[in-house]
Amino acid sequence: MQSAQLLIGDEWVSASDGATSETIDPATNTVIGSFAEATGADVDAAVASARAGFESDAWQGMTPDQRGKVLWRIAELLERDADQIAALETLDQGMPSFVSGGISLPLAAQVFRYYAGFATKIEGKVSPISIPGNLTYQRRVPLGVCALITPWNFPLAIAAWKLAPALATGNAVILKPAEQTPLSTVRLVEICREAGVPAGVVNLLTGGPEVGKALVNHRGVDKISFTGSTEVGQYIARVSADDFKRTTLELGGKAPSILCADADIDAAVMGNVQGALFNTGQACGAYTRFFVHSSRVDEYTTKLAAAASSLTIGPGHKADTIVGPLVSQEHLDRVDSYVQSGRDQGAELITGGSRVDGDLADGFFYRPTVFGGVTDDMTIAREEIFGPVLSVMAYDDIDEVVARANDTDFGLVAVLWTKDLTTAHTLPPRLRFGTVFVNQLPLIDPGAPWGGFGMSGWGRELGEYSIDGFTETQSTFLNLA
Questions:
Q1: What are the extents of the domains in the chain?
Q2: Is 250 a catalytic residue?
Q3: Which pLDDT tens digit goes with each residue over 153-167?
Q4: Residue 366 has what DSSP assignment?
Q5: d(Cα 103, Cα 443) in Å, to the nearest integer?
Q6: Which residues pair with 376 in a beta bridge?
Q7: Helices then strands (H, E): number in the chain?
């Protein structure tokens, strides 16, 4: 059994009222740990601690090179404990071990190394002005206290890509992980302290939505970086307007996958199955709407269903598992309700469409589901399901498919499958999505921005864009006359 406390300043403490909640293994529906349920008083204490940490000599007096070394050390410690942390991530979230150990952990370490290098490269500039006898220059300065609110689907990786740039730019933070999956974030915070992050600079609050809401409403918080649902993002945007908090919001997605008539169907099937069912479809960039040229749609649908139904379903810790459990009973019920809506609205269920029974009945396992004959007005084609549900739709020409792909509230990710070089270059600019992949999986790299158009959020994370997101521009005028 894991037990997690709050980190406020330099002390690991229980919630001020002693309240705790439990976290479960979604593969077995058994309790694996408990965590402190932070109160409003704990939020106040964490914000005060972060402010003190931000203003402390230990943090403000640290040179950029020293900050970079601390971030580099965090990466080293993540790699030192990689097997342990990956196993914890799989236990708490359910993701297959090839995802937790082969993708999430390496990406987290890579992100810290990337921003360790940025710590010494946050530059300003000197501006030519027309005031006689004046010198003007700009600096990038940290925002102050940043609340980092992370989701349950990739707890460690997303915490890393928020925390690393926040620290590289000299901010203090309060990390608030999703209540479903707090354990790997607790371990990350322990590593930060071991690596030499000064007291108060990284604080941890665990608990449910009320904790996040208190952070969003707190006047002592200068920045909210949130990844999660569009509905919560809308709430954050409204509340943050009251005191003009800086916000970065990475929200939902409904990624179209466009297969041109000349696409390599076998490669597209393999790539789309992996892109759609990565982490059991619990990814905002998951491929979910498959627009297939009418001349190839029957072939594609048959092959896609065969590939999806052949994948091994099981607990994440088993080496051969490709599709793990959904994160909770609540989420499984939500996914199943979308599947039922697809049936009710006339889509053709090709494969899947039910919970897994037998030896896996205690866990939250759902069969990969493929629908054919889907139309653009169906619920499964319009709303984010966040599960292993794939919808196939036919189209006849490029102009048509561009319009249909763009006909969504979301604009995070799209993918294009074609052998034609001209199409590969000319079609992506017509798609209203933050990232367009061509003939590949939805990959993430620290050097490339991540974020979306429309209701997929505000701002960009990763790359140099995160440096902008965690700093303000300050001008200095010097009278030299």
A1: 2-251+456-479, 255-446
A2: yes
A3: 999 999 999 999 999
A4: B
A5: 10
A6: none
A7: 17, 23
For the chain, the first-to-last Cα distance in angstroms comes to 69
Classify domain 255-446 at the CATH class level.
alpha beta
Do the domains spanning 2-251+456-479 and 255-446 agree at the CATH topology level? Answer: no
Name the helix (H) or strand (E) containing 413.
strand 413-417
Span 2-251+456-479 CATH architecture? 3-Layer(aba) Sandwich (3.40)
The mean per-residue pLDDT over the stretch 201-221 comes to 98
> Which of 333, 372, 324 is closest to 354 using CA atoms?
333
What is the rounded CA–CA span in Å between residue 281 and residue 273?
A: 10
User: In the numeric block, which tokens belong to residue 474?
Assistant: 């300050």
Statement: residue 1 has pLDDT above 70: no
Residue 329 pLDDT level (bands cut at 50, 70, 90) = very high
Structure tokens belonging to residue 43: 């939020």
146 an active-site residue? no
Cα–Cα distance measured from residue 448 to residue 271, given in angstroms and rounded to the nearest whole number: 21
pLDDT tens digits, one per residue of 235-278: 999 999 999 999 999 999 999 999 999 999 999 999 999 999 99
The answer for residues whose C-beta is within 8 angstroms of residue 317's C-beta and 6 or more apart is 27, 87, 90, 91, 97
Residue 160 φ/ψ, nearest 5 degrees = -65, -40
CA R_g for the chain:
23
Confidence of residue 143 (pLDDT cuts 50, 70, 90): very high
Catalytic residue, chosen from 250, 260, 384, 461, is 250
pLDDT of residue 481: 86
pTM of structure: 0.96
Q: Do the bridges between strand 413-417 and strand 435-438 make them parallel or antiparallel, or are there none, so unpaired?
A: parallel
Residue tagged active-site, from 146, 284, 384, 461 = 284
